[in-house]
Amino acid sequence: MGELRREIFDIVIIGAGPAGMAAAATACAAGAHAALVDDNGYAGGQIWRRANNARHGKSVLATRWINHLQRSAAGSGGLARLQQTRVVGMPRANVLLAESERGALEIHYDKLILATGARELFLPFPGWTHPRVMGAGGLQSLVKSGLPIVGRRVIVAGSGPLLLAVANYLRHAGAIVPLIAEQAHSAEILRFAAGLARTPAKLLQAALLRGGLIGTRYCADAWPLRAQESGGRLSVTLQIGKRRRVETADYLACGFGLVANVELAALAGCKFARPGCVAVDDCQETSVKHVFAAGELTGIGGVEKAIVEGQIAGLAAAGRTTQTARLFGNRDAALAFTARLEKAFTLRPELKTLAGPDEIICRCEDVTLGQLTIGDGDQTFHSLHDAKLHTRCGMGPCQGRICGPAVAFITGAENDLRIRPPILPARVATLAADGGA
């Protein structure tokens, strides 16, 4: 049994993305003794990770908050940064079980802020498991970590503004991006673009992204149908409007939006406003007293929403609830943008029929889409829990994080997977150090 270290803080923030950084800096400025916990070696989350590294380019907004974070360590309350530390469970009230390279760790807190971010949504189609078919954000992360991309041809496909951001990053890293395939309806894209006039900062951001993609074709009403090896390259068949087109590439970067990482919130007992969206009050407090949520956990909405919700949560957790009201207007504007975003990039029903019955949908357990039908095949399992019990779909290392949202979208099954610790793969020594809790 390994040694169990213990740390005690007023406030613990889980996740060092924009929401978590804003929460940590704000709470510390209010005098709280806080800890920022993240499993990456750099603060910034998937959006800003290594944003302060000149090799990967700089973001003014990212640099500003990274500097805020660094100053927080010397503030009145002080900030402990627990990087490369993964939370795997909540053995009892006000206690988190985590592990790092130093071993098992118990983190005790009075207030908890969840800013666990989101992951990409993958939808199966023939060839989606090919090693050179990657998540859009996943490929971006690999390039940030050193994957050679100069001169490589990359097709970006899926849905949402992330596609533009990824394509822009890859272009600046030296990749050739001939085409972006956006599944959303062209009419919805035009309405969304026109609505950016209400948010000048977003309009400028979109213009800069698109300006960096001169020569890259942006196609609405477009999505991948098939990816296969062809002469040492990837052959990608795309549906573009009413026509089909075949493109060759070195990589297909594909992501159909984002799914919030709700596992820790579910383990804490937080109620949900709707699937994948934690319910919060005006101060970002969840249904569990002294547990707050910010960022993608409360709805996929981008950086500005994450920052303002993180600030509100940080103030409220530090006991400065009267100061949160000055931020409500900014949050309302961010939530209005979130609603427009969700409407514009709603996934179209055609995507539900891309995969045939022989297509693997659970890569951990090699479960095919056809195995998720029962009886004569006319009826699917009504819940992911039932599918898991009968087919092992969702029982692998990812615990349904990848296949669960895809199955729910394709079959309409209720996403009711039970969340039990450890919520992420953990060392036996970590669980033993805490008595198996």
Question: How would you describe what is shown here?
Answer:
The chain has 437 residues and is an alpha/beta fold. It folds into 3 domains: 4-119 and 259-342, FAD/NAD(P)-binding domain (3-Layer(bba) Sandwich); 122-256, FAD/NAD(P)-binding domain, CATH 3.50.50.60; 349-411, no CATH class. It contains 13 helices and 23 strands. It has helices spanning 18-29, 45-48, 60-72, 136-144, 162-172, 186-195, 200-211, 263-268, 303-317, 328-344, 384-391, 403-411, 428-433, and strands at residues 4-14, 34-37, 79-82, 86-92, 95-100, 103-114, 118-120, 133-134, 154-159, 179-182, 217-219, 222-230, 233-240, 243-249, 251-256, 258-260, 272-274, 277-278, 291-293, 360-362, 367-368, 373-374, 379-380. The strands form 7 sheets. Strands 1, 2, 3, 4, 5, 6 and 19 form a 7-stranded mixed sheet that branches. The longest helix has 17 residues, at 328-344. Residues 51-58 have low confidence and may be disordered.
Q: What coarse outline follows from CA principal-axis ratios?
A: globular
Number of strands: 23
How many separate structural domains?
Answer: 3
Beta-strand proportion: 25-35%
User: Over the alpha carbons, how many angstroms does the gyration radius reach?
Assistant: 22 Å
In quaternary terms, these chains amount to: single chain
Q: What name is given to the CATH topology of the largest domain? A: FAD/NAD(P)-binding domain
CATH homologous group name of the largest domain: FAD/NAD(P)-binding domain
What is the overall pLDDT average? 89
What helical percentage do the residues reach? 25-40%
Regions with pLDDT < 50 over 5+ consecutive residues? 51-58
Distance from first to last alpha carbon: 13 Å
Indicate the CATH class of the largest domain.
Alpha Beta
Helix-and-strand structural type: alpha/beta
Reported CATH architecture of the largest domain: 3-Layer(bba) Sandwich
Biggest sheet statistics: 7 strands, mixed
Q: What's the number of helices?
A: 13
